[in-house]
Prior knowledge:
The complex is a heterodimer of chains A (about 210) and B (about 700).
Chain A: H1 20-36, H2 38-46, H3 49-58, E1 60-66, E2 69-75, H4 81-88, E3 107-110, E4 113-116, E5 129-131, H5 144-152, H6 161-173, H7 180-186, H8 197-210
Parallel strand pairs in A: 1-5
Antiparallel strand pairs in A: 1-2, 3-4, 3-5
Chain B: E1 2-3, E2 6-7, H1 12-16, E3 32-38, E4 44-50, H2 52-56, E5 60-65, E6 93-94, E7 100-106, H3 109-118, E8 120-125, E9 148-151, E10 162-170, E11 182-188, E12 191-196, H4 201-212, E13 219-222, H5 238-250, E14 254-257, H6 262-265, E15 273-281, E16 287-299, E17 320-330, H7 343-361, H8 365-371, H9 389-400, E18 413-414, E19 417-429, E20 435-442, E21 447-450, H10 460-471, E22 479-482, H11 499-522, H12 530-536, E23 541-548, E24 561-572, E25 579-589, H13 596-615, E26 621-622, E27 627-628, E28 647-651, H14 675-687
Parallel strand pairs in B: 3-14, 12-13, 16-17, 21-22, 25-28
Antiparallel strand pairs in B: 1-2, 3-7, 4-6, 4-8, 5-7, 9-17, 10-15, 11-12, 11-14, 15-16, 18-19, 19-24, 20-21, 20-23, 24-25, 26-27
Helix pairs in contact in B: 7-14, 10-11, 13-14
Amino acid sequence: MEDDKSLLKPQQGLHPEDNSRRNFLKQSTLLTAVALTPVAAVKAAESHMDEKIAEAFEKLPLKMEVNGVAKSLQVEPRATLLDILREQLDLTGTKKGCDHGQCGACTVHVDGHRVNSCLTLGIMVNGKKITTIEGLAKGDDLHPMQEAFLKHDGFQCGYCTPGQIMSAVACIREGHANSEMEIREYMSGNICRCGAYPNIVNAIQEVKEGGIAV
Amino acid sequence: MTNKNGLTRVDGRLKVTGAIKYAAEYKFPGLVYGVVVSSTIAKGEITGIDSKAAEKSPGVIAVISHLNAPKIPGYDRKPNDFDPNIKTFNDSKIYFYGQPVALVIADSFERAKHAATLVKVSYQKQQQQTSLTANLQNSYKPWGDGSDYLRGEANAYRNASVKIEAEYHTPIHVHNAMEPFAMTAVWDGDKITVYTKAQAIKSMQQDIMNMFKLPIENVQVYSKVIGGAFGSGSPLWPYAKAALIGAKVINKPLKVVIDREQMFTMVGYRSPAVQKIGMGASADGKLVGITHEATGETSTYQQFGEGITDTTKFLYDCPNVNTQYRLTRLDLSTPTYTRGPGETTGVFALECAVDELAHALNMDPLEFRKKNYADHDPEENKPWSSKYLDECYSLGAEHFGWDRRKQKPASVIENGWLVGYGVGSGAYGAGRANCSARAKLSADGILLIQSSTSDMGPGTATVMVKIASDIIDIPVENIRFELGSSALPAAPGEYGSITTSSVGSAVFDTCTELKEKFKQIAGGTDNPDYLKILKEHNLPFVEVTHHTSGRAPDADKYSAHAYVTHFVEAHVHPATGMVKIKKVVSAVDGGKILNPITARSQIIGGVVWGIGMSLTEEGVLDHRYGKYVNANLGDYHVATHADVPQIEVVFVDKKDPVTNPMGSKGIGEVAIVGFAAAVANAVFNATGIRVRDLPITPDKLI
């Protein structure tokens, strides 16, 4: 279609890129305006009202609790939890490493369970409680796992670290931190290219053996 | 926090809380998002770009390509090593699969990403060549006569009483830093500020100045923290040029982050190599001759070479050594520095060959190395600045329990697994470059030290605080080290294991000068009470800036290297060919170890890279299309938790009297050198099977 804002042209045959639902929404908007007055239609077209309304219809409400704070958002269904956290809520502690669920850098807790936020659409966590790395410490008091990572030098560049820590906490909660081998197996979804693995395992073992509830 | 292992990372708290900001995490009003469209052919011309659907897609601001990009003033310049000569959006030529061909800019990431899928690029395709082994006959001398080396008689190994000849293959290795490359570019008229990952901040500033012909004061580069780089983070890569152009065109703050697949084609990799080694010794195990011939690859548009044969020239006492290095041009992007560049590849072959010859001599491979120990540099005919490789051998052997090794391969079975021990050594130059630093001690008790270095993970700020605290006696908590900005005093790039030596020397000198200044103000005292002096003289602060030469006194008279010896216990499953690394001891001569806790992490990191290199890592190309078939972290296997055992690191920890005032030698690069050979040698000891092409996957053992 040459100009999909035009009311004069009939709707052309849609091909996939034309995004039929969005065009339908936009046309309906302007048709509503025409029903009022032609002036309103022109105004609506000029101010890209159709675009704005189509955009609003394309978004869905998302209510979730992030680090104890209730959030009410409008998100596109295709937006991942990872991108919502990083780009809309400015919680950039959760990292994008691969965007394919292959590296674990984006690990967060959803209702206490570890998930790859890059493989989770925002709308899938409606009504759920999310904990990110920013929500792990209690004020200035670091979580024991954060303290242990510091002490054991469980990182170098620090980019995978939030994911490693979130995964490590969940690993203990799940009961999968009973031996060095078990920790390695259940932490293998979290890649550390700097290669801090032995230090990470030592940190997890110390927290586990410390017996503090995580 | 200081403990018996040294100072924990001064930026550690920011990293474990997720508060530290990487390149893609800076917000600006009106920030928009760019997604790079990559070429889907490896060689040819773009014949057309249909961007109509993308431009009409919601939220799209612009689609930029060579068809509409502005003329870039610096594109008439000759390229240098750090400026890959892809003039992004300059013309229609395609040099490699995955080359940036367009940039789609939209008001959200999702919209930009979707619209990028709507850009239709048509091509005139030409036949590409992407296989090194299929194109070896087209190799050339990259450095003219400097590509070859001869000491004594060429190919003398052939006349030795015991000799081996072998060919070794190493594949493409991709850095795959966890943080995807990102650039946030903010133009203000003809001034540009960028946030990116830059190992070499000052040279990136220079590259941007060159690209747009701007004066230094118009270009500000921030790289406050780097989520890993391993050598890939120095050039102004083509994607970054796209970001700079895009932000200029739309005149809005623009963020461009490349995806994992693009990390394989847009930001360098380790060149594959084919190496031939001939090595001969007398019957009692004294080396007679070594011949080492290596061929790597580079792109069709830029030459990148590395010192694959360098270590062969000096690691052992051998009267006759000849080496040659060749490159083959392929339709791939240009390779770049990758952890232990050159040495990692070359020493794999060298240290496997040493093991093969020791086996042919029926000698313990460590004894063979000791017998051929070089007590001075045979290549440059100079004394070593310091060399405790012999102590690496003995300390490592003792900690590992090398005396339990069986000389005969395939003679130990434990719980159904074949068990083997292997050793591999390595060296890496202990270099240093010019560096400046500024130190300012204020009345509030804070010592601020600044230099435009970066930190891709080793803990630059931490070791600098440690160095400063050894001179200025104030609590480490009161010492701040600021890095990551091109506006700070000039520092060299963080590469080549030179940072601690270069920046550390500048910090050492700057703090020494600051201390002297306080002494002068106070009228002479050995241990100045800094705060008291500031108060008594009514001074808000005292500040000094110092430039330190990269040339250590007498450095020219010596040959300076760091050394490592890796000991590996490998278990091989006889039915499946699966290899497990069960135990590692790495003994390191890194001069004086300034901060053991972070130094140990660097060595562990090198070993983990070595585990990946030896067992799993391989960039696999489908040569029919010149494209990667495993350009993701699910198919390109870097080592993960389950692959990595506890790693014991032993430091000789003896001061080098030449390299720098602290007596240290850089260790980040040497950490990986020789490790893959130790694994291959352990696998041979376990099975009797010699695998000469990496990675050692199960199919090669059954």
